[in-house]
Each structure stands twice: as C-alpha cells, then as structure tokens.
Write a structure and sequence with these properties.
Two copies of one chain form a homodimer.
Chain A lengths: L26 H6 L4 H5 L2 H10 E6 L4 E3 L7 E7 L2 E6 L5 E7 L4 E2 L10 E4 L3 E7 H10 L1 H27 L2 H14 L8 E3 L4 H8 L3 H13 L3 E3 L4 E4 L2 H8 L4
Helix pairs in contact in A: 4-5, 6-9, 7-8
The first copy, chain A, binds a DNA duplex through α8.
Organism (chains A, B): Novacetimonas maltaceti
GO molecular function, one term (chains A, B): DNA binding
Keywords (chains A, B): DNA-binding, Transcription, Transcription regulation
DNA sequence: GCTCTGCATTGATTTATATCAAGGGGTCAT
DNA sequence: ATGACCCCTTGATATAAATCAATGCAGAGC
C-alpha cells in the first residue's frame, strides 16, 4: 500500500533506523510527497539532526492523537493515510476543519495549546517532533521555515474557500465542491473513481450538513447521472463538468 | 484619530519621507501595533532598505483595492482602519472571510493571483510593497519570515473558529461570538461600548446570514437585556457572561 | 449459524432562517 | 426644503435542510 515508487528520491534511498524506538522515519517520504523547497534545503549532513528529532508513529483508524485544548507538545508531519482535524462545541456539535493527507504538517499553532483536535480516518503514519526540537530545527534550517509559511498560506486559501462553502453554498453545491476537491487531491484512480476514506458522518461534519442531507444529495446526484455511488466508499464522477458548474452555483 | 501615543517606539521616532512619492511610511506603527519579533529584528541600518520598498497608501471607505483573481503584484500591511476580505460566487453571493485591522498583513498567498478580494470598510492606511521586493526583504530579514509564519498561524486558528461558527452555530450563537470577538480585539471603549465600523450587510456576509437575521438577532438580544443598540454602529455589551455562554451553545 | 452494532439510505414532518415586502430615519446633492 | 438613496428594522410567508423515524446491509464476535 505505501507506494515507494512515487518517491522522487528513490535513486538514493534514505531510510534511517531510530536507535531509541526502532522505527524508521522516512524523510524521503516526509519531504517529497509535495515537491517542495524543504527537500533541496536538507543536505545529507543534516539528516542526522533530523533523525534525532523525529519519531515515526503509527495511528490506528479512529484514534484521536491531538486533543483540542491540551498542551501543544508535539509537531507532526503526515507520511501516509488521512487525518481529520476538527473543533467541537460543548454540546457535541462538531466541525471538521480539514482533512490532512501525506505531506501535511500539523500543530503549527503559535499558542501553547492545540487549537483543534486530530483523529486518524484510516491507518495513519506520521513523523513526530517535539516542539522544542522543532524550534531548534527551524533556527538551523531557515528554508524549512519558508516551507512552513508556504504550507500555512496554502491552508489559509483552503480555509477561505471552505468559509465561502460553509457560509454561502447550498447543500448540493457543497457536496459537488467536496467531490471535486477530493478528486483534485490525487485520490482519483484511473477510471475517475474516487475512494473516500471518510464516512458520511465525517463528510457531513466537514460540509456543515447532516448525514441524511449528504446521503440524499449523493442520491440526487446519482439520479441526475452526475456520479455513480459504488459499494463502500467508492464514487465515480461521471460528469466533472456538471459538478463544476454546480459547485460554483452556475445554475 | 491616528493614536501615536500607543507607539511603543515613540522614544525614538522613525518617520521616513519617501522621496519618490512624498508619503511617509511609518514603520514604527507598521511594526508595533502588535508587539512582534519583527521590530527587534529590524535594525536602524535596515530601515533604508525598507523605506525604499514601501509606499504608504490611503484607501477611502468602500474602495476595493484587491480584486479576487487579479495578478498578485503587491503585499500590504494595514496601519490604520479596517479592511474586509471576501470571496464571492458568480451569482453575487459573498462571504467575508475576515476583517483585517492595524498590523495585519495582506496578500500572503503563494499563488501568483490573489485568492480573495479586499475592500476598505472605513478610511484605511496601509504600507504597500511589491511582492518582488518583499521576496528580497524576506531573504534579508529571516525574522520577518518567522513573524509572517506566526501571523499566518494565528489567522489559521481564527479561520478554524470561523468554520466552526459557519458550519455548526445558530444565528444567535454566531452574532454573540462576533460581538465578543470584536470586543476582544480592542474595539471596545471604556464603558464596554463597541464601535463596529462595518454595516449590518458586512456582518451578515461575515456570519453567513442575511441582513434581516442579523438585525432581528440584535433586536432579540436587546430584548433579552444582553446588549444595548445605540444609534449608528455603537453597541454596548450589558452581559458579557450571558453572551459567552450563548456563543458556545451552553443553553 | 445467530445477534449486535455501526453506517447508509429513504420517508415524513418540523423548524430555523431566507425571502418578500413595507416603512422609518439618516445623509447628500440639487 | 425636496427628493433620491442607503441602511436598518420589523412583519408575513416560503423553503432548504434538520429532525424524527424506519429499514437494510455488512462486518465482528459468539
């Protein structure tokens, strides 16, 4: 399942065994999933420093590994799987603010407490750094800081799009936007079929809808011939064009 | 109106006259409105470089100075006034993604196009940099990059809170959250009275509601004795406590 | 094999908020 | 002054989506 062939550094693999815990932080993967400046910024000589600081962690589906409001001790980089980030109200209402896939950084917050929770959607692998060490790394690798700024800026753009979706789009527009987003983030296989790792409940909490509305909307799209809903979590986009015009409210 | 007494660097004022345009970029203000690392990072010797790069601009109320989708040529720092940032759908539906006050940076986006529009709510003063120059400045002042990362992280937290608001809160909870946010951002005068620079329409577009719902909700809060709605844009918070429990859905 | 549990779908009904509509009180230019 | 315009408020009605409710399906454990 972990696709090492997609690693652009495959020619000179860099698997490092962690003495302390016996796990292998795969910096190749950590850096390359999104081709980025951080990769070229990290020289062979620096790898030792990084390997000291990082611990590879495996999180099973459904396990919450960042609790909103807890002290922000660690900083993460996702290497495989999907994480849901969320905020909740005291009465249980929950808003998923984003899904983080391979390459995403978690725990950027400046505050000393996590501002959100994080839970594994499927099996998730991630590199964990203590924030203390992370601070040191940023001092030594200024280009890493630039990489983080880039990442944060991208997330900010995504957040603004999501605010437009949550504040002003109809249920149909929301679901169409979501399917297209997922398709554009490489979760699409050859036949245009999408494998959604998350449940209807997660989608609902991400789109500010209820499970029932998500389900009904998908059924409606299927009836319209826009999509094909397969067993489990597979969805085929039959008319990307119509979904796009729907997502932007052009009808 | 511009409150120079709040400038923490008042002891050694640094007003620089721009030869080219005859305007005065006030770096003191630009840096200090939020006490930040960038200030200590900028030495006297660097000021010349900054003054070369920045142009102070005054934007009248209602003027749109960033158009969504246009080439992202400039980078801004607000020195006074309030800016609304927004995204719109083709049919005119509009979502205000945030209000930017003194100290905020605009135009962080990595892309070569602006991902959002920006319009002055009241009279706005800002420092404008070309992105090209900004890039050079970031190379020379790494601490400025750290400051931007901090800023972006804070905005990300705010965006997550806003997603929770837009996706899961009721109209009453949204308006209560908004009033408390505004109060916490220093827009509060001695008597707990809040001066909102924006119209009901702006508030509605920020909270994902209609003008009518915002108006009705404020009337309801007044009837409940939570607030007092004065003439124009002044609002007094009579029971911050009740507003807080309302904002978090505890009732 | 069975039951239990979680997830998804679909239908009936309710409700919060949008939409439509009217009127009041500023401000500005004529 | 007068009218035009904008913003706000309030009321009546419509509607999209939530809620309540029932059913089906699939995997896990016994």
């Amino acid at each position: 399942m972990p696709d090492t062939s997609s690693c652009q550094f495959e020619q000179r693999p860099r698997r490092l065994v962690m003495g302390a815990v016996g796990l292998q932080p795969d910096f190749c993967k950590m850096c390359n999933v999104r081709p980025s400046s951080v990769c070229s910024a990290i020289e062979d000589a620096d790898i030792a420093r990084l390997s000291e600081a990082a611990v590879e962690t495996i999180v099973p589906p459904g396990r919450c590994f960042i609790e909103e409001g807890e002290p922000a001790t660690d900083f993460f980089n996702v290497t495989s799987g999907t994480v849901k980030l969320f905020k909740a109200l005291p009465d249980g209402r929950r808003q998923i603010t984003g899904f983080a896939g391979p390459g995403h950084f978690l725990g950027l917050a400046v505050s000393d407490r996590y501002a959100f929770g994080a839970e594994a959607v499927d099996t998730v692998r991630l590199c964990r750094f203590s924030r203390e060490r992370m601070r040191g790394l940023l001092d030594d690798f200024p280009r890493m800081e630039r990489r983080l700024l880039e990442e944060a800026s991208n997330e900010l753009v995504a957040a603004q799009n999501q605010m437009l979706l949550l504040g002003r789009k109809t249920a149909r527009e929301r679901v169409a936007s979501f399917l297209l987003d997922q398709a554009n983030h490489g979760e699409l296989n050859a036949a245009g079929q999408l494998h959604l790792p998350m449940t209807r409940g997660d989608i609902a909490d991400y789109l500010g809808l209820t499970i029932e509305t998500v389900s009904r909307t998908l059924s409606w799209m299927r009836a319209q011939g826009m999509i094909d809903v397969g067993k489990g979590y597979a969805i085929t986009l039959l008319s990307q064009e119509r979904l796009e015009s729907l997502a932007e409210g052009e009808d």
